[in-house]
Amino acid sequence: MNRLSTSWGAYDLTRFPEDPRDQLRAWSAADAYLLRHLAGEEGAAAVDLSGSGPGSVVVVGDRWGALTTALAGHAREPVQITDSFLAQQATRANLARAGHAPAAARLLTTRDAPPARVDVLLVRVPKSLALLEDQLHRLAPAVHEGTVVVGTGMVTEIHTSTLDLFERIIGPTRTSLARQKARLIFSTPDPARAAGPSPWPGRYVLAADSGAGAGLTVVNHAGVFCADRLDIGTRFFLKHLPRARGGAHVVDLGCGNGVLGTAASVADPDATVTFIDESFQAVASAEATFGANAAEGAKAHFVAGDALAAVPEGTVDLVLNNPPFHSHQATTGATARHMFTGARAALRPGGELWVIGNRHLGYHVKLRKLFGNAEVVASDPKFVLLRAVKGGA
Q1: Is a pLDDT exceeding 50 seen at residue 190?
Q2: Which own/partner pairs from 333-338 qualify as long-range (CB within 8 Å, at least 24 positions apart)?
Q3: Cα-atom radius of gyration of the chain, to the nearest Å?
């Protein structure tokens, strides 16, 4: 737990799921800079957060709820829009820790309809430029001439392309001076600007050299990894994809656009595939990819959640996993460790976890500690595909 001190008060904040070994903060200098600006501490007048009514103050991309938690006491039912299930859960916990009632803020996902009118729009710049583009397009109709639009991010996260999106979709845009390696973005809404609909989702067809994925149509909503082509790790995995036993329960864990689980379903239409990701955009992509390729009557479930927390123990035959090793800009092994632990609990005796990863990540060490075994199925100079089997069969 770490404390964010502001002129409005101090807030004890945590990420989700809480892990005492995780030393990463639940807020950044970019969050603190934006809050100081809103409170009038950066040389300009304080921003009026009263708005025209509940929900007229909107926070997009609040990573762990720091902004929403601080705003909950100063704006009428601020709205948080996030692509992250984990961020949403962290926000709920941080709001409760700060003494706010659940109704103090409204939590929406990137798949929900945004408010019809926005008087203050605050944007925590995401890692994905595509996700920023999609969200600005979705919110532009709700922005009016008097809307205050302020973005925030670390200097390394704000590029010319970032500013170009604000300029093209919202209106004239400028940036602040840097403070503690963070910067603010100020955009003035132009009512004459017609940004049009979002160009997302996109789709493409996998080439004949894509192993078990050859010929599949892939659908990607904005923000999902490798939006216009298959990433090389997944391509390698598809060339060695295990065939599930008839009627098996397969989990595509951290499913992204769902191509691994979809390929498994196409190979064995009797399998039941559960697609899980913490990104709402990813789960929507997986559902669309599955729908575009799977046989009629094929069985699938789509879950936005915390790894395998929602899957009953001992109910899974095969887990396919390409774990991320970044949390926003930070490198961390916590997510992979959490996924591996959940997989071991969810698998039946004799069930298998298949993991693809960069060779330098050393996943075989973690798997041997958890499962007592880890076999190299295939490798190349960059990737290694590992198989771990749960004992007790």
Answers
A1: yes
A2: 333/361, 333/366, 334/19, 334/21, 334/22, 336/361, 336/363, 336/366, 337/366, 338/17, 338/19, 338/307
A3: 22
CA distances (Å), 235 to each of 54, 209, 232, 284, 322, in order? 46, 9, 5, 21, 11
Q: Both tokens of residue 86?
A: 């984990």
Q: Token match 């002129």: residue?
A: 7
Q: 343-367, pLDDT tens digit by residue?
A: 999 999 999 999 999 988 889 999 9
Amino acid at the residue 32: A
- Please state at what angle helix 160-169 crosses helix 129-139, rounded to 10 degrees: 20
Average pLDDT score over the chain:
93
DSSP H or E segment with residue 134: helix 129-139
Contact in structure between 136 and 166 (CB atoms under 8 Å): yes
* For residue 195, pLDDT beyond 80: no
pLDDT, tens digit, 9 for 90 and up, residues 88-106:
999 999 999 999 999 999 9
DSSP β-bridge partners for residue 322: none
Query: Which one has a higher pLDDT value, 225 or 379?
Result: 379
The DSSP secondary-structure symbol of 202 reads E
Say if residue 137's pLDDT is above 60: yes
d(CA 255, CA 213): 14
- From residue 314, give the alpha-carbon distance in Å to each of 308, 318, 319, 347, 390: 11, 11, 12, 5, 10
Q: Are 69 and 92 in contact (CB under 8 A)?
A: no
Count the residues in the chain: 393
Residue with tokens 């403070």: 179
- Among the listed residues 85, 133, 357, the one whose alpha carbon sits nearest the alpha carbon of residue 231: 357
Three-state DSSP state, 135: helix
Please report the pLDDT score of residue 331 as a whole number: 45
